[in-house]
Amino acid sequence: MALLSRAQIDGADDRKWEDVPVPEWGGEVRLLGLSGTARNAYEKSLVQLGPNGSVQRVNLENSTARLVAMCLVNDNFERLYTDKEVADLGRKNGAVLQELHQVAQRLSGLGKKAVEAAEGNSEAAPSGSSTSA
Questions:
Q1: C-alpha–C-alpha distance, residues 52 and 87, integer Å
Q2: d(CA 46, CA 113)
Q3: Domains along the sequence of the chain with CATH
């Protein structure tokens, strides 16, 4: 297999999305998996670090709604809720939000292991082979 160029990588449409029925809201919504940068921002929002870089506390306040808000988009893939509007979304049915959260996690490659890694509680992943020049 040939190595990709930067232009090929930059041009690849690799973000996954899914339309999810939400009968409680009378229709369906679209969830778009997070970009790498957005995923890192979400993971960072889950923890508060101390001065020495160790985890001081886990921040779960509106964490379900926060992730859903980051992934919930319209048909032009523009976010429906800004970071400042997360609390509005958080007032919706918790069961619905949890279902959407699970889809958002899957699309974004997040889950329990990702949260543990952000907290520094997971084992290090095995490193792959590499070559150096």
A1: 31
A2: 13
A3: 16-119 (3.30.2220.20)
